[in-house]
């Protein structure tokens, strides 16, 4: 086990010692000047460590630091970054303090099974986790007093290696604590804080870690603690890695342990937010606390309901955890007496009428009085999906509202593009991200400036892909066709379509391959070539998803496709940044209405990469006729081979008639004026509405504020 002492063996000279504070606060990751500072320390190490300042600082030679200390200009930049860091951390004058003085001094406990804050912390799998990370970052920027609760998974989420025949290999690597920006939390007596969390008839010891995301702390639990049985030590091993029992045990620790952790830290949130159903047990624990302090069950439930927010994130059936009632009985038979209820009444807390089974989403919907979906469309779908919990109401009155997801712009907008925004939109764009007037000035960015920047981003993407391919080829003597499949033959000047997401059936990754001959014609059009870049992981146990990856990968390796189809391994936040910033267009063609929101298209759109997407999730409200292209009809065509064929037909047709001609229509300076117009409209319309700043303000105003008008 790592001791707090292991975190003190840094060898930074006194004059630069504050770089350590900086590297342990993820604030640096969305501050261009702080990033530039780390990069300047050692460009090669910066790139080799995949932008990890903790590893960088531990490995940078002392001689290099001596040089830097003698460099007045560097020291000036160092002082300036530290000064803006201190100002950010200490400022009391925030949006939240002005908008919600009634919540002054209060806290909001934010529970999530995953947090995607930086790719060096592999405690996220995809959209849900990155949303949680972006929520924390925006909350920090706005001064929202959020406290995050989650897991520190010592083996993280699966890493993806693709074998020569295209099959996804699941790789897990232990976290290297020494190179992660995470610190152990010290308990009241000086040693590590370790909690005892009841689990069934026994207890499990839980150690606590802390990650600092600007002003927002994340407290992460870990059961790999001495004194736990070997199986208990494994509970927090992997994100979404274990069997049903492990999953239940994780969720008990997340919800019930999480509340106890807050109490042990002396933090008493006035509001609790469960980001998806994995943490729903938290609401049950709040009820138990109140009952054991002498309140009636009714009273306890009423009070908990008023202080609880629940966000549901998916209409896909498998996305909702349901546990067998026998399993729940086994773990909770000592718990329900504390609520003063019998087994049946207890099981009813999480039953959907007409079904048996302990449904974590139903539990949260019943106990939390403030409930939301993550896009307008997903709101409608969720009200329909859960209407049986409110049998006396018409579906439109089912009390689930929506807050459309947004992305943390300063994390996802390419850095040089952000300087262009600064120049043409004004210095204040970062602090006025949801002000439409700021974004209307996008029109004033000269076409050549935006187009050239985009092409630099594209070349950065291709260089990165080649560097990864080369590294793997040299290190592992991989099959050379794997280097081609990884994008070695991509063409900088060809229209490049990006498709990156989890390889789950409903996302229909292979839809564009539907008519392979027709696709081939487009890829090899001598004057107007097209190329495709894919990325994405399948869930480690999903062989169907892996088969889809294999299908794409085989084409990527097939000489008949000439290297115009590429697959980037191990899609994570690092790869995602290059993709959403560097492809020409973002393709998304899920089976509607199964995409609750979809955030990667928001990242792309804000970077001037137009969306070409099914009218589902955020795009159903975000598409405005001029900022990209729709696929299919609003509401979708339903499922089945005929619907797939019709959507594929639509994709080819729009590509051939609209997208490809517009992209290749250049003026005498080789600038596609019409295309750049779509890029600008994409930035203007997406960045102003689909940023995390707007999203977190919506949460504060409509769900967190005690007097918010919530649908009941
Ligand atoms: C943004 C992001 C996602 C979410 O993408 P969707 O559009 O919701 O599918 C998933 N994975 C990574 C690595 C991301 O950056």
What is the number of helical segments per DSSP (H or I, 4+ residues)? 29
Mean pLDDT: 95
Structural class: alpha/beta
Radius of gyration: 25 Å
CATH class of the largest domain: Alpha Beta
- At the fourth level of CATH, the homologous superfamily of the largest domain is Glycogen Phosphorylase B
| Count of discrete domains | 3
Biggest sheet layout = 10 strands, mixed
The rough form would be described as globular
Distance between the termini: 47 Å
**CATH fold call of the largest domain:** Rossmann fold
CATH architecture of the largest domain: 3-Layer(aba) Sandwich
| Number of DSSP strand runs | 20
Unreliable residue runs:
1-6
Beta content comes to 5-15%
Ligands (ions, cofactors included): pyridoxal-5'-phosphate
Task: Write a brief caption for the model.
With 712 residues, the chain is an alpha/beta fold.
Please give a structural write-up.
By secondary structure, the chain is an alpha/beta fold. The chain folds into 3 domains: 4-90, no CATH class; 95-405 and 697-704, Glycogen Phosphorylase B (Rossmann fold, 3-Layer(aba) Sandwich); 413-690, Rossmann fold, CATH 3.40.50.2000. The strands form 4 sheets. Strands 1, 2, 5, 6, 7, 8, 9, 10, 13 and 14 form a 10-stranded mixed β-sheet that branches. The protein has a 6-stranded parallel β-sheet with strand order 17-16-15-18-19-20, sandwiched between helices. Strand 6 (194-199) and strand 7 (202-213) form a beta hairpin. It is globular, with a radius of gyration of 25 Å. It starts with 17 loop residues before the first helix and ends in an 8-residue tail after the last helix. Residues 1-6 have low confidence and may be disordered. The structure holds pyridoxal-5'-phosphate. Pyridoxal-5'-phosphate is lined by residues 126-127, 130, 501, 571-573, 576, 598-601, 603.
């Amino acid at each position: 086990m790592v001791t707090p002492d292991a975190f003190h063996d840094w060898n930074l000279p006194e004059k630069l010692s504050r770089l350590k504070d900086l590297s342990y606060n993820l604030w640096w990751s969305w501050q261009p000047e702080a990033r530039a500072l780390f990069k300047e320390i050692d460009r090669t190490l910066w790139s080799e460590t995949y932008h990890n300042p903790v590893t960088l600082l531990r490995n940078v030679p002392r001689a290099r630091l001596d040089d830097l200390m003698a460099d007045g200009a560097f020291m000036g930049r160092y002082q300036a970054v530290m000064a803006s860091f201190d100002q950010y951390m200490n400022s009391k004058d925030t949006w939240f303090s002005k908008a919600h003085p009634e919540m002054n001094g209060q806290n909001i406990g934010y529970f999530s099974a995953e947090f995607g804050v930086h790719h060096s912390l592999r405690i996220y799998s995809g959209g849900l986790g990155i949303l949680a990370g972006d929520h924390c970052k925006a909350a920090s920027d706005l001064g929202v007093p959020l406290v995050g609760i989650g897991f520190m998974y010592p083996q993280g989420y699966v890493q993806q290696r693709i074998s020569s025949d295209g099959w996804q290999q699941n790789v897990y690597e232990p976290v290297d604590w020494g190179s992660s920006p995470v610190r152990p939390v010290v308990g009241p007596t000086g040693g590590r804080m370790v909690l005892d969390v009841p689990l069934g008839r026994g207890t499990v010891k839980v150690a606590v870690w802390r990650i600092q995301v600007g002003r927002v702390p994340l407290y992460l639990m870990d059961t790999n603690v001495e004194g736990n049985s070997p199986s208990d030590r494994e509970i927090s091993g992997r994100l979404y890695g274990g069997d049903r029992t492990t999953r239940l045990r994780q969720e008990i620790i997340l919800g019930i342990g999480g509340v106890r952790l807050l109490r042990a830290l002396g933090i008493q949130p006035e509001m609790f937010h469960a980001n998806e159903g994995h943490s729903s047990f938290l609401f049950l624990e709040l009820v138990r606390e109140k009952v054991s302090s002498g309140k009636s069950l009714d009273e306890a439930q009423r009070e908990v309901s008023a202080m609880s927010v629940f966000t549901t994130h998916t209409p896909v059936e498998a996305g909702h955890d349901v546990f067998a009632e026998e399993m729940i009985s086994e773990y909770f038979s000592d718990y329900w007496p504390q609520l003063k209820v019998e087994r049946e009444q207890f099981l009813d807390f999480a039953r959907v009428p007409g079904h048996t089974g302990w449904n974590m989403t139903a539990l949260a919907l019943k106990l939390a009085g403030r409930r939301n979906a993550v896009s307008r469309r997903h709101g409608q779908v969720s009200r329909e999906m859960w209407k049986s919990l409110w049998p006396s109401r018409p579906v439109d009155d089912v009390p689930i509202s929506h807050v459309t997801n947004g992305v943390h712009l300063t994390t996802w907008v390419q850095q040089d593009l952000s300087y262009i925004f600064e120049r043409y939109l004004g210095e204040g764009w970062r602090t006025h991200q949801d002000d439409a007037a700021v974004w209307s000035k996008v029109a004033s960015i000269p076409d050549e400036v935006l187009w050239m920047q985009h092409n630099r981003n594209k070349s950065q993407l291709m260089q990165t892909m080649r560097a990864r391919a080369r590294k793997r080829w040299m290190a592992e003597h991989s099959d050379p066709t794997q280097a081609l499949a990884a994008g070695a033959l991509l063409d900088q000047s060809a229209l490049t379509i990006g498709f990156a997401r989890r390889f789950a059936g409903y996302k229909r990754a292979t839809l564009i391959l539907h008519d392979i001959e027709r696709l081939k014609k487009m890829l090899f059009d001598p004057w107007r070539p097209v190329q495709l870049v894919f990325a994405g992981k399948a869930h480690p146990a999903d062989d169907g998803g892996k088969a889809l990856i294999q299908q794409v990968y085989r084409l990527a390796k097939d000489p008949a496709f000439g290297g115009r189809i590429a697959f980037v391994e191990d899609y994570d936040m690092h790869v995602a940044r290059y993709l959403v910033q560097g492809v020409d267009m973002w393709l998304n063609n899920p089976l509607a209405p199964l995409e609750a929101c979809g955030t990667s298209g928001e990242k792309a759109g804000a970077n001037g990469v137009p969306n070409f997407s099914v009218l589902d999730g955020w795009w159903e409200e975000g598409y405005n006729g001029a900022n990209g292209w729709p696929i299919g009809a609003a509401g979708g065509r339903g499922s089945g081979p005929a619907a797939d064929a019709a959507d594929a037909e639509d994709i080819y047709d729009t590509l051939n008639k609209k997208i490809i001609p517009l992209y290749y229509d250049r003026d005498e300076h080789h600038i596609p004026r019409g295309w750049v117009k779509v890029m600008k409209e994409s930035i203007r319309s997406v960045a102003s509405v689909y940023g995390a700043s707007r999203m977190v303000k919506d949460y504060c105003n409509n769900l967190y504020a005690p007097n918010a008008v919530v649908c009941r």
